[in-house]
Design a protein that fits this description.
The complex is a heterodimer. Chain A contains 15 helices and 25 strands. Chain A is an alpha/beta fold. Chain B has an eight-stranded antiparallel β-barrel. Classes of the chains: A alpha/beta, B mainly beta. β22 of chain A pairs antiparallel with β1 of chain B, so a sheet runs across the interface.
Chain lengths: ~525, ~230
């Protein structure tokens, strides 16, 4: 090839590269356009909602004619569609349209009197998925984990009462469900026709059985069973599967999440399990107050409509971000942290609380290292993505036993069932939910330690009976925290119990109504400074 | 010996005194302090690496270069001071190497008219630059999309002229000449770069001449275009 031709070719390639780079840099953005009203729109809930959604509303005392369920005004949709390049979705709850538009078009749209405001769309969500170990055979330690991931929540108590989440409808939002219909660990769901509906919000098609296998593993942790061994607790639950995430598409996930939550509501979901998290790409940690992000507001709105939303706390515990993301920061949803099976306390990657406005998060925790059913077999995997479905399965069973309770009552009950309750901290919440709380098998809680004041010190002394019985396993660690007068924790610790006089604190170091909360072997007591 | 005994006793006592092992500890107050450092905080700094190609025309027939082979490599450290969400200023210090592969044409005059199998001119520089950064779009603690416009100055600390030739015996002869006296010690120019977080496309334009005015060499191409990766999240 001649040099001149080479020059032209290299220039053309360079130009094409720069052009594509610039296109991606300055491409049209995606926006939410919010409207002022829904005046004049009519709505028939009996046509729109699944019967289970109507039942849930009646049970929770929620109006069937809530304005947020009314459709977006056709007139507004038409006017906006004339001004933008395309409309990709809409939200009844937020009375909004998702549109592709240029900045000029958005300026024009903002001048419409019926447009309340316009928000640029979120992007770059992070799946609370840490890493996968692709071994297909289970070693003895893996078998132990499989057994313990549900056992630590009290599987035997639910099983003894014949509880498996029957009658509870769980919507799973994830990145894909390939091989779901052929997966032996989920075969019972297909066989018993408990896969109610599916929708791929990334393509607007019914088929969700493609994409990343994360959704299959997550669903197995809710209600999977293999060779008689439960992977999750809710093996009798019904499922709605929504594919909401596309890793290669940076903009659509938040929009899909919003669309999916309305779809789940419409189709009668009792519980939503989601592993989505928005962090530094869009927000600062100090903005994680449950009000800033649209997904957090949507999650709260779902809770107002009677749905129990369960979300992974996130896997940022070891990163600079460290705390929970959105929507795990929403106040009405259960955020689930992860614990390490080998220690039974916080696993390093699990995101910490509290929220920016100092509310408790995560609310509860479960195993963050699990055995899940992958595309081609059982796998070791880790992430709070899997802690969340374990709790979702638990919640389905607990709710099956308490159908008279609404979602927020269940929220509160699940927290109360935590193995640390009433003790809490920002790594574990109230601890791992316990089935025996719901089945009435709770043993009497005996004081396991005393506070002894001596000079200017307070000592925590383990009672002989409980120290002698100490077998040095991981359940006999002692948790303590320092709580300020506003109820917020300042510090929290876990220590080993190697001596009966386990803790000695200088009272003069703490004043202003601060408290020392201590938890040891199911017993919690508070010392006020 | 007495000291060793005392130390051992102290260690023994300490072991028993602090028998309660702290397995887990979190200080909430320390965690919730708002940092001033971060990709979209007041201060941010990071390292970066770049690879680019010399582009544009030589200013005369005697200094033609081979495009594609002539390149620029940089390794640097960048600081950014956020003024507002849309605008930042910053500076950067880097080491860069420019390699000009000279075409062996009859018209060649740089540095002489002799033709070889391969010939290149290498400049190693210490560089300092200042820039304005314009950010686009909403973002959190994240670099996001940006356009930088800045200026730079280079101090050449090393230069080398290198030729390779196959002689009649079939052996390859390589001759390197350093401390080239026909090059300017200092150069300056302007640059612009567009980036999506850590991925950046940059273009530099050298305003100064590379050769001393006492030499009548045709000026080498002034433009460099390349890709850069920032070492940050």
């Amino acid at each position: 090839m001649k040099n001149s031709n080479l020059k032209i070719l290299s220039k053309a390639l360079l130009f094409a590269f720069l052009l594509s780079f610039c296109q991606s840099l300055f491409a049209q953005n995606k926006y939410w356009v919010f409207f002022t009203d829904k005046d004049g729109e009519s709505f028939n809930p009996y046509e729109y909602f699944d019967i289970k959604a109507i039942d849930r509303r009646i049970q929770n005392g929620i109006s069937l004619y809530d304005k947020t369920d009314f459709p977006v005004k056709e007139e507004y949709i038409n006017k906006i569609s004339e001004k933008v390049d395309s409309i990709s979705n809409h939200s009844r709850w937020f009375n909004a349209l998702a549109v592709y538009a240029s900045e000029n078009q958005i300026q024009e749209i903002q001048s419409f009197p019926f447009v309340k405001n316009v928000e640029q769309m979120n992007y770059y969500p992070v799946l609370a998925y840490y890493q996968a170990d692709f071994d297909t055979t289970l070693k003895s330690n893996q078998l132990k984990i499989l057994n313990r991931q549900t056992e630590t929540m009290g599987r035997k108590y639910f099983e003894a009462n014949g509880i498996d989440g029957k009658g509870i409808r769980i919507a799973v939002f994830d990145g894909g469900f390939p091989s779901f219909t052929e997966n032996p660990a989920l075969a019972h769901i297909i066989k018993e026709k408990r896969l109610i509906k599916t929708w791929d919000f990334t393509r607007n098609k019914e088929n969700v059985f493609h994409g990343v296998s994360h959704g299959v593993m997550v669903t197995s942790c809710i209600g999977g069973i293999i060779n008689g061994k439960k992977i999750g607790l809710a093996t009798g639950a019904e499922f709605l599967l929504a594919k909401t995430e596309v890793r290669t598409e940076p903009f659509s996930e938040e929009e899909n999440w919003l669309a999916a939550v309305e779809w789940a509501d419409k189709n009668g979901a009792d519980i939503i399990n989601s592993s989505l998290g928005y962090i530094h790409q869009r927000y600062f940690p100090e903005q994680m107050d449950g009000k800033k992000s649209l997904v957090s507001r949507a999650a709260n709105l779902a809770a107002k409509k009677g749905i129990l939303v369960i979300n992974a706390a996130g896997n940022e515990g070891s990163s600079k971000w460290k705390i929970i993301g959105a929507p795990a920061d929403a106040d009405s949803i259960i955020s689930v942290g992860g614990i390490n099976p080998s220690t039974n306390y916080h696993t390093s990657f699990s995101s910490y609380g509290p929220t920016a406005d100092k509310r408790l998060k995560p609310n509860v925790c479960a195993f963050g290292h699990v055995i899940a059913a992958g595309k081609k077999g059982l796998k070791s995997t880790q992430g709070t993505s899997f802690s969340s479905p374990l709790v979702a399965g638990f919640a389905a069973c607990a709710w099956q036993m308490n159908r008279d309770k609404n979602n927020m009552e269940m929220f509160s009950e699940i927290q109360k069932s935590g193995n640390l309750y009433p003790y809490f901290d920002y790594a574990h919440g109230y601890g791992v939910p316990q089935a025996k709380y719901f089945t009435g098998d709770n043993a009497e809680i005996l004081p396991t330690f005393d506070f002894i004041e001596e000079d200017s010190f307070v000592k925590v002394v383990i009672k002989d009976k409980f120290f002698k019985n100490n077998n040095f396993d991981n359940s006999s660690v002692l948790y303590y925290n320092i709580q300020n007068k506003n109820g917020c924790l300042e510090k929290y610790f876990i220590i080993s119990v190697d001596e009966s006089e386990v803790l000695k604190i200088n009272i003069n170091d703490y004043n202003d109504g601060k408290k020392l909360n201590v938890h040891y072997l199911n017993y919690t007591e508070t010392f006020e400074f | 010996m007495k000291k060793i005994k005392l130390t051992l006793i102290a260690i023994f006592i300490a072991t028993f005194s602090f028998g309660q092992e702290v397995l887990f500890e979190e200080d909430v107050l320390a965690d919730t302090l708002i940092s001033k450092k971060g990709p979209n905080r007041k201060h941010f700094y990071h390292f970066f690496i770049s690879y680019g190609f010399i582009a544009g025309e030589s200013e005369g027939a005697g200094s033609d270069i081979s495009y594609g082979l002539s390149n620029n490599v940089e390794f640097g450290f960048r600081y950014k001071l956020k003024v507002c969400n849309f605008y930042s200023i910053g500076c950067q210090a880097l080491i860069n190497t420019d390699v000009f592969h000279l075409k062996q044409l009859d018209s060649k005059t740089l540095p002489d008219t002799t033709q070889y199998d391969k010939e290149k001119l290498t400049n190693d520089n210490l560089s300092f630059g200042v820039y304005n950064r314009f950010n686009f779009g909403k973002r959190g603690n994240y670099i996001g999309n940006f356009l930088d416009v800045g200026a730079y100055g280079d101090w050449r600390f090393y230069s080398k002229h290198c030729v390779k030739d196959k002689i009649s015996t079939g052996e390859m002869v390589k001759i390197s000449t350093t401390h080239l006296n026909y090059l300017e010690d200092f150069n300056y120019g302007v640059y612009a770069q567009i980036g999506i977080n850590r991925y950046v496309v940059y273009a530099k334009y050298r305003l100064s001449d590379i050769f001393l005015s006492t030499y009548s060499y045709s000026e080498l191409p002034r433009i460099t275009v390349g890709l850069q990766i920032g070492f940050h999240k």
